Amino acid sequence: MVGRFAEREAIEQLLDAARDGLSGVLVLVGEAGIGKTRLLEHAAAQATGVGLTRLVGVEAEQLLGYGALHRLLRPHLNRIDRLPTRQQDALNAALGLADISHSDRYLVGLATLALLSSAASELPMLCLIDDVHWLDRESAETLAFVARRLHADSLGLIFAARNDLADHRLFDAMPSLHVGGLPAADARELLSLAVDGHLDTAVADSIVDGTGGNPLALIELASHLGAEQLAGVAPMPEPLPVSRLLEEHFRQSVAALPSDTRMLLLLMAAAPTDDMAVVWHAAGVLGLPARSAVAAVEAGILDHGAGLGFRHPLIRSSVYAAASGNDRRRIHAALEAASDPAHVPDRRAWHRAQAALGPDDAAAADLDAASDLARARGGYSAQALFLSKAAELTAEPAKRAERYLAAAQAHLTSGDRAAVHPLLDLAVPALRHPSARARALRIRATAELFDTGNDRVPAMMLDAVAELADADPRMTWELLYEAMHAAVIARDPMHRTTLADVAKAAVATPHRPDAPAWSPDELIKGLALRTAYGYESSVATIQEALAKLRASAELHDVASPFSIIVSLAADDVWDIEASVEIVGRLAAADRSQGALYGLSLSLSALAYTEIRNGRLTAADALFAEADDYATAMGLTTQGDLNRALLYAWMGRESDVRAVVATMDVVATTYGLGMLRQLALHALCILDLGMGRYDEALRHALPVYEEDVPSQGNLVLPLLVEAAVRAGDRHTAALALKRLEERAQLAGTPWALGLLARCRALTDETADAEIRYRESIDFLATVPLAAEHARSRLLFGEWLRRRKRRSEARTHLRAAYESFGAWGASLFAERARIELLATGETARRRVPETRFDLTPQERQVALQAASGLTNAEIGSRLFITTSTVEFHLNKVFRKLGLTSRRQIAAALGRPGFDGGPSTSD
């Protein structure tokens, strides 16, 4: 190999990591012919003591969902029975190895990770994946998922792709190298090796400059240009049109071949690469003899070997692109005839469709059936492609529109939102039934959610409700759920509607009598009542809905993950136990199904419950796990967007302000008004901890005035405290009045504990003591350790100001020790200063080693402390057992531990009860 020293070093480092029991990922990106494939060949040659698995993406196979993954995993499928049952089922369904009705893409990813890791545990493995840009979307997503989950698995993955790989965003944030042209000296050396005769120096410089050092261009031009041109006697074309010249060079090379050879090459360009038997069967249908390949091998178009194939992918694509429509239809008809309808009905249907000239309802019906097979395997991109082509071949307008609509839904499910709107534009004019038109509006609204912003979605969902009228009560409530879900997150102002309008529409819609126990309908109605008609009208409905969900034998997530709505509703009636239980069960269901999007939101919601319980380490681990899954899905994360409240409790002021600034930008850009209120809540906690009561009051007032579900109530005790300490008794009285009305209606220990504390804060008589003790007693009965400690801190401050120092010390010391153990530094410092004022010495705490753990080390440590085995931890965190072992070893070393039983205490968790409740 000439040059490429940086690339070779990166490859060697990756191989060393795999040999040492770690893992590595490298993405090579560059234009066609730049040398990516040659670098993969170099990696294979250097992989001594390492097993090799190779995969090349093929343009003609992009329609086959999980087709490329099947080729990659074929050598390892004998291990599939070692996987957990759900992973086995998901992978068997995806690869078409079993008659299973549905396959979840993330369970497929986890199964693939486990399968490759299992093989690598016996012999370090290197997977080389070339032409990633031509993988089917499902295979690309799965391999990107695996690449993001690797850590200590003796496994290396090297991807090679064209420059437009960035359009997919699947491989963002992975280690990558841009493979550019060779430096001039290296390019001249390569060119001289490719030229047999004399090479003029000026000509060489001109070719190197004109090709930009592209190795394939250098080599092909060396063979394309005449000896006189290379010697500098005859002129060369100016400028050198590298890409077009390469394609034209390949086309001319093919055009010079006999007609039978050209037809065989076209057949190979359109056929699956892993089944030459089909190619030769189709060749027989066309009357092409096997000797037709000889001329292509002699011309260097095909490689002669065990698997006859094109020398370069550009040749394959140029052969197909140059063919006439009539020739393409001929070879697809032959491939249809050669394909077994019992084993490859989807391929057969596709070839039949490609052979059709004009509308063909029978071919369209075959594609429709093939789309069902693709959907069952989780191949939504293939499903969309089949349905789009079926629609093109459908003669009847209404049926054609239905297929375009179904294709739009499949594209949306696959994540290809750019394809959704054009298909809807084709479908909508011919849709006849109200439910179909409502579906179209719903699909467009969901795509809008990701493309332009959440604040446009509620009005679009209400349009769909109006279109549907009373044709489908179940779908009506699904639409209302999504409208309310979007509206409570967007907050006012919204596009063409308001939160109150959405709420009134939900209240006015009759309840479904056949709704299952786990249905979100009643909870949505309760939140709608709260928004449209006030708190008093909603409490009973919300509490009954939460009780029904807790009693339900099963819980299911829905299109817009349910955990956010549950959290908002439970917070609004101060029911922490319902929030922890229901969201925890949703997280467990999402985890078992591999539903990573719903799981990431459930974990974030549970992190807030951990903060309220003083478990800041656990909360941070949950946020990190949620971010990890978002990244695994290829979603763009916004850094520490969810951590503002956590940082506020930890006293990290600069981090709080940085996150709040990001929250404001994201809220504006994506129509997520709820983020602004969460930001104000975090700032309020920060300022209370620092004793800046005027600032805390300023942050709390806008939330109080807007009074939306959850934050409108959670801010009340903060506002009372800030107003009392800032000397604004009038505002404190108003906030207390609202809290008294609502807390007594809710009647939960959380509500009554906060109410007692706020009454104590505003009471200037000795009766305040009774209120403080009531608050402490109430809050001790529920998992709200942080609120309990805050009540003890405030009571200790009150006692100290009344010269009751001995009693004050008891509460202040308990608060100080709790806050210090959790890492709540500002409140710990506030308690320490009060303790000093009582005459007791209290040292300022220093940062503890548990906060030196990485996010994933904390996740693993918390799970291990709860008694889980390494295999169970790996299954829950979607990582391999070897990665769990790697992280635990680092935890033990950093914390100086010798036993798993020591982890809980080392994490600063007195009374530790088993880690995050998400995993139950």
Number of helices: 46
Instruction: Determine the mean pLDDT.
Output: 89
Helix content: 55-70%
Could you tell me the number of beta strands? 7
How far is the N terminus from the C terminus?
54 Å
Please state the oligomeric state of the protein chains shown. single chain
Fraction of residues in β-strands: under 5%
Sheet with the most strands: spatial strand order: 2-3-4-1-5
Structural class label: mainly alpha
Low-confidence residue ranges:
910-920
Rg estimate, integer Å = 32 Å
Biggest sheet record: 5 strands, parallel
General form: globular
Task: Describe what this molecule looks like in 3D.
It is a single chain. By secondary structure, the protein is mostly helical. 64% of the residues lie in helices and 4% in strands. It is built from 46 helices and seven strands. It has a five-stranded parallel beta sheet, with helices on both faces. It has a two-stranded antiparallel ribbon with strand order 6-7. The protein is globular. The two termini are 54 Å apart. 57% of the residues are buried. Residues 910-920 have low confidence and may be disordered.
